[in-house]
UniProtKB/TrEMBL annotation:
Annotated SUPFAM superfamilies: HIT-like
Protein name as annotated: DUF4931 domain-containing protein
All residue ranges annotated as the DUF4931 domain in the record: 8-131, 135-252
InterPro entries, sorted: DUF4931, DUF4931_C, GalT_short, HIT-like_sf
Domain of life: Bacteria
Amino acid sequence: MENKHLYFNTSIGVKKPENYRNKEQACPFCAREELTDLIEVDGPIILLKNKYPVLENAYQTVLIETDDCHAELSTYSKEHLHRLIRFGLKHWLEMEESGGFKSVIFFKNHGPLSGGTLAHPHMQIIGLNDLDYKEKVEPEMFDGIVIAEENGVRFTLSTKPRVGFYEFNMEMPEFGYQERFAEYMQMAADYILHHFPFKATSYNIFFHHLDGKIYAKVVPRFITTPLYIGYGLPQVPNNLNWMADELKRIYF
């Protein structure tokens, strides 16, 4: 029978450091001289094997975004932003092209409700040996109200969100990095943390490679609605046009 689930190793999971709530926990990503299993270093950016590989049948890596523990994607200079996203996309796509995995996921957690355990800015690139994430992706989840579009790069607010409520999408052609892709992503993160109509402290970014395009979906995180948890029913709010206009007003 085909496997449909990721298996989590709890004996490793209980050893993972956590410093969103445990403020006494030292940040392991700040102790750069103690990091091991480095894959590539580009100045303040480091890709390394995950010291706590909690997912079975997977190859787990961590991308440390910066040496500033208190930074956040929305605060990065344009130079660092593009350096980081180019670096991450390069390694993600190389892992895909290696043919060693059924699929490769690339994502970011930020904030206490994001599902992450460490506050230091980082992403993860994980090769899945026997699961294809694309089987659970519907192209319509990237449909939405256009906020901005430039040189083949599009920034939208989902009208058919995957989980529900507000989801911001960026898309660009798979060949040739476009700076606006990362800049739209940065705008979405900034809007969630500083301009959102409800207090927001957390978000996720999920990257997708589908049908000749690279997508990023930026999702503000709150307590997940029980209608989605219990029944898989996404909800669509009635103020999407207002929010799209707000982003245009603030950033464009």
